[in-house]
Design brief:
The protein is built from no helices and twelve strands. By secondary structure, the chain is an all-beta fold.
Length: about 170
Amino acid sequence: MSNSQFINNATINGAQPSTSPAQLNPGSSGVDFIQPNGFIILPFVTGVTPIVAEVSVPNTETNVNQIRVVITASNGTIIVDQVSPSGTNKVKTFPLEPLPENCTMTITFETTNGNPPENVTISVIACYTPSTTTTIVTSGTIPPSVTGSTPTLTISSTTSGVTSGTGEIISYM
């Protein structure tokens, strides 16, 4: 879990129009909402099925004292609807199995003073498992090499074989 991914595709409702999803990232100053019922929608990336462990508002300079996390399947079915314990802004009760592809997470906020949420950052701790994988099987004495700034797998090997019946030797390269 040391490979952090930052939020860049969130929909932020109830904040200034110039608000950027990058402002939700932990370590930033956070998002100041202008409506008390503001919320955030996080779509999960197509092709992955996340196992969510925790969602929180880690900024200690916020007026958020409770959050609600709703995860909805692409067909509209609510899979998770959890509220953090009173006086906390952390939800830790999620299913232990991967969520379906194309889910969305909606996070709403309660504040200590009834005012719009301030200095909101979001932390989602999850494992993302690919929904499909590709397996490459090679044989030979020369290992594959990875080259380029975007790695490309190059397989170099030569295999020879004998076909039965015609007596021809066929070489594959």
